[in-house]
């Protein structure tokens, strides 16, 4: 298996011109695109429609190239977006291609990727143990396909359903109880359940520890490599597992670290070094050129207090705390990597210990 | 002369409880307070009234302690505020006290401070060469008082008038022409003229280079240590000059650097080292504890392009570009210093070359 | 008793120049100022400090005029502010003076005002039945002082405490349970409890109906004339009762109506007519000049659906729903009254039936 | 000619389900769709991508139904969108169908519509007299096609190009000067030039009055029925002319009025009555049901002063003035019509006298 990593700039959320050019230039075979993870420039909130526009634009392009429908294109490739390019963060997408199966094409011990989907969930299942189990099973399938042990996994991106007003009404009509009747609050359960699914599959949490009452509640249960989001546009979970595998022939390696807070430059360096980059203070120009992608979560500090000092993140009625957090962390990461095309998203339930957040980096081998 | 540096947290823009406690505890003699530079948590725009509230709170406290009026207190101490605590930036004020005159109390070669005021300006003088000359004269007076040469100056904070609708109308009524009839646009002229005044006094720009047409226009003329702002609440300029002086007995030193952009961590380290801190990658805990204050400007990159990549700063209709820039830079500086109580403000006309910005740091001697 | 009503424009939240001029001109006797209700131009959220600035400015002026402290001035006059001047709403304050006691100075059957305060509440009492009872007692005292029956009351403005992080911590330290540990959520309990207090005193709700579990929950219990707010800066409740009284000699009358939604112009006309204005479609110029003040609440429609159509109020992550609602209602009221200096605030728990909101108007007698 | 008017709600900017249903139900023949004018729920600024998403969704649906490409569908039907659903404004689109040519199908003297396109413009032509002339010629062609005189025209919607950074660079590369190098500022020229084109064609302004220097400058030259916008996505102008014509067999009539400011309810009533609705104070339920569509512009008052009172529209750094203005006007119009699906957009250069704005209404005949 050989994984291609293409970080592409976007002039607007509907701009797929760089992807189109790589396809036209035969650099990317559209049939080999398995996933894309990107940042769009909306506000990241409930009324951020830039993700929908970007999904539509990429799916339309792949559909036209492959002679299939937009829906079929969306089912072939996992398209994950996070809205909100605050501070220096630059709108972009990282497109992943995969050629061959595990073990084919030689071995570099490098980057391997597996995309899995769970079954569809009814509204009353969202944010509950059934979803945890289904995600865990999907991650386990990926480990098998990639021929890797849990400790070789460095990043698992999961996108799953949340509770919409329509879903809540549907459950009520059938006499079923949902985990919460507040659509916004359901995000925490939805992100939390899928993160716990990752944790269970990777042995970070024992299956018997996951009862209904711990989801979005006992934050001492967590995965250090999960990065999960929830959206109203899907009813199953898309699971993208990234690992280094002896069955991979890719020229990239992936690594990860933990961000103690949004100003923790140490966590950034940790992820880059874990991916194989060697440097003292900062990576040099040549080393920076080898950084192919960075994926992180940003979180407001507990009580808004960063290292003992008050921030305004949680009291600001004009700008949401996720926007503050992404802006700060994006500056910190760019100060190390030099490239602001970084995937930073919000919401860290069961992803690292409370107040902390995961970061992963993909680096071209030297 | 001995300068005291007190960085104080604020629970809200009217909170002076930490200053009151230091006065009650006899740590600060209110009669020795010469200046305060702080960040408040408004939006930093025309409708940010947190600066006014903070000014009023500090002046009221000093007035009560000294038995004078609020207006007299405001005239005794230069009170400079910048609105906007984005990302991790923490609301605070740094209070400067001064004991004794230059040369009194021994010599450490450390931090010296001089506060000067210019004459009052008519609206038609704002942003023009007369203001440049007056600020230059004020800085020159400060050099004399501090017994320092220009290259020992590391930071000059200037706050001067801008053109308000009332001022524009007043000039029109007297048949005088103002530099611009757009109050918002006048900020650039006002900040630019005072920065050029600093540059002239410090020999960074020759006096004959400063003609009316270069102000806010020829950005290759600049000071590397000026940090200027403009507000509608005053008609003269407050000039605070910070230098290291053989005539100082302070236990602090000041240094400065240049930020190439808002993700330039190198400029942050440069300022800290210039102030006397020695460290490899990052300052350690003990060194961090010696950092008394950091002052910087944040600027959007030209065309919104940071290191060749598009940011959304200039196209975002929800969040102003200064807020994006401050949030990113605040994260970067905090990642080095560990303390988010940093003074970062916007607007860099004639303060460093285009796209770049000044940064200064005060460090307690080891 | 004679009540004076002075609607004063403000150039900024600290501007009390119109009030100062009326005092200087002997139009207002500062010793007779009993209350002020105003709108300031912040965002109306947790980080809106324009209310604090305005309170300080008015209290400082009254203190200087009366030779008392700021705190004493704040205790003499009830100063209520709502942040958020969206759309056409104009920053202003309406100052109320009172001369003589009930029955003194003849009778017009016009406007009477009584300002009452409750005892101070511990955090664990906020939003609970004890607060309901205390507010009810305060309103009952006002009825007695004004010599009016409940149905002569047209508007009761209440400002009470909410739960701050500090208050929640204090209760926890003493082993006491608060109604909610979420400061934002506590607003609903705080506004709801005080509104129910008004309802009980006016006979709109029976005392035995008010149990802990109905507060901020059973919205079919309500007062049609309460307008309540909650803030972290006080621990008791300020209650301002407005009625028409045979014991009043004021040249004004007050009336009220109910707004079915934020576009309900019928409710606006209802309040004006109830206060004594006669007009067909719109009040004419002369009638408009007689409108002295308008006070209303604005509420997002249930589910964001206005008359069957979707609004974006509840899904907008950039602008809070209260701001949307105030902007729309401010336009509607101004289209009738012609003067945008209208008090419109948000949060209608137990103030009119769900989705509806109170509106009151004071009109000079013809 | 028979014009169909279909006001359709949208659950999100990509939602065309109501249009699809009407096509499926044979209520709308997709081949007869000539134009759509709608409001989407973005911020209305440079980073509002909801218009692009809506355009794509409608064009994709028409393309699929007609078996043509998206681009061909966009060329067949003029699709005009304005971003920003503030206050009560409800996201929607009004779809116009046209059956038969002028004079066919009998005569009601009712609504007639003509869609015209100008030639494409080079960047250096945008906002200049050549564009004025081309728009005037397009409107004149429409008058001929509709067989109406100028005074029977009640509403002309024009969407034309603005200057993008790319266009400005292109002109510079060819040594051509553009009207302004500031993309945001170009909106005023672009909207102004197309509005003057309408004014010239309708005899409201004499052709010889339109010189380069009056565009976006002499606001006493205007059309009372133009409603123009500018976007970076097109290089020609789409012109949609609405009139009442003896050659029309439509069951609708159109009328217009002038809004003196955003709280001017009189202008709203004027437009409805001009379209044929008779009512005293407010239209009743039956009359309201006959209102098919309302189109208006919203403008901040000069200096932010509404009827002598200060608004915060022009000083608010959090919410743009167009958003304040639309929110207020949307409330006022809805208070009369009862349906918040109203088209309100911003930017009134040469559209009504300064500070005023056009409003048009389409009403089903009684």
Poorly predicted runs of chain A = none
Percent helix range of chain A: 25-40%
Shape of chain A: globular
Order of helices and strands of chain A: EHEHHEEEHEHHEEEHHEEEHEE
Main pleated-sheet profile of chain A: 4 strands, mixed
* CATH homologous superfamily caption of the largest domain in chain A: Cyanuric acid hydrolase/Barbiturase, RU B
Terminal Cα span of chain A:
19 Å
Write up what this structure looks like.
- The structure is a homotetramer of 366-residue chains.
- With 366 residues, the first copy, chain A, is α+β, with helices and mostly antiparallel strands.
- Chain A has three domains: 2-99, Cyanuric acid hydrolase/Barbiturase, RU A (60s Ribosomal Protein L30, Chain: A, 2-Layer Sandwich); 113-242, Cyanuric acid hydrolase/Barbiturase, RU B (60s Ribosomal Protein L30, Chain: A, 2-Layer Sandwich); 254-364, 60s Ribosomal Protein L30, Chain: A, CATH 3.30.1330.
- Helices cover 30% and strands 25% of the residues of chain A.
- Chain A contains nine helices and 14 strands.
- Chain A has helices at 17-24, 50-66, 70-76, 129-146, 165-173, 183-201, 265-274, 285-290, 321-337; strands spanning 2-9, 33-40, 78-83, 92-99, 111-117, 153-161, 226-231, 238-244, 252-259, 291-298, 305-306, 309-310, 343-346, 357-364.
- In chain A, the strands form four sheets. The first copy, chain A, has a four-stranded mixed sheet, with helices on one face. In chain A, strands 5-8-6-7 form a four-stranded mixed sheet, covered by helices on one side. Chain A has a four-stranded mixed sheet with strand order 9-14-10-13.
- The radius of gyration of chain A is 19 Å and the shape is globular.
- The two termini of chain A are 19 Å apart.
- Chains in contact: A-B, A-C, A-D, B-C, B-D, C-D.
């Amino acid at each position: 298996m050989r994984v291609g990593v293409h970080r592409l700039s976007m002039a607007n959320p509907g701009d797929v011109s760089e992807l189109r050019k790589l396809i036209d230039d035969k650099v990317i075979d559209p049939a080999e695109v398995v996933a894309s993870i990107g940042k769009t420039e909306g506000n990241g909130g409930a009324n951020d429609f830039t993700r929908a526009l970007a999904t539509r634009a990429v799916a339309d392009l792949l559909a036209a190239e492959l002679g299939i429908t937009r829906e079929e294109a969306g089912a072939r490739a996992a398209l994950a977006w996070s809205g909100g390019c605050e501070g220096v963060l630059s709108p972009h997408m990282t497109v992943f291609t995969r050629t061959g199966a595990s073990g084919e094409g030689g071995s570099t011990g490098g980057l391997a990727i597996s995309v899995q989907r769970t079954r569809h969930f009814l509204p009353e299942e969202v944010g509950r143990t059934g979803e945890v189990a289904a995600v865990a099973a999907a991650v386990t399938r990926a480990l098998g396909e990639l021929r890797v042990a849990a400790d070789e996994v460095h990043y698992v991106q999961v996108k799953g359903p949340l509770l919409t007003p329509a879903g809540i009404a549907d459950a009520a009509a059938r006499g079923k109880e949902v985990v919460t009747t507040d659509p916004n609050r359901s995000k925490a359960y939805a992100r939390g359940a899928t993160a716990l699914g990752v944790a269970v599959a990777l042995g970070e949490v024992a299956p018997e520890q996951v009862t209904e009452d711990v989801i979005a509640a006992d934050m001492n249960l967590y995965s250090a490599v999960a990065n999960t989001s929830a959206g109203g546009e899907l009813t199953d979970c898309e699971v993208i597992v990234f690992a280094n595998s002896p069955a991979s022939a890719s020229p990239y390696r992936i690594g990860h670290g933990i961000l103690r807070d949004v100003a923790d430059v140490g966590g950034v360096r940790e992820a880059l070094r874990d991916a194989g980059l060697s440097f003292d203070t900062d990576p040099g120009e040549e080393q920076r050129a080898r950084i192919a992608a960075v994926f992180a979560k940003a979180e407001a500090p507990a009580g808004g207090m960063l290292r003992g000092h008050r921030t305004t993140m949680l009291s600001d009625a004009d700008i949401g705390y996720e926007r503050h957090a992404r802006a700060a962390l994006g500056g910190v990461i760019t100060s190390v990597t030099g490239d602001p095309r970084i995937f930073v998203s919000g919401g860290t339930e069961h992803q690292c210990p409370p107040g902390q957040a995961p970061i992963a980096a993909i680096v071209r081998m030297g």
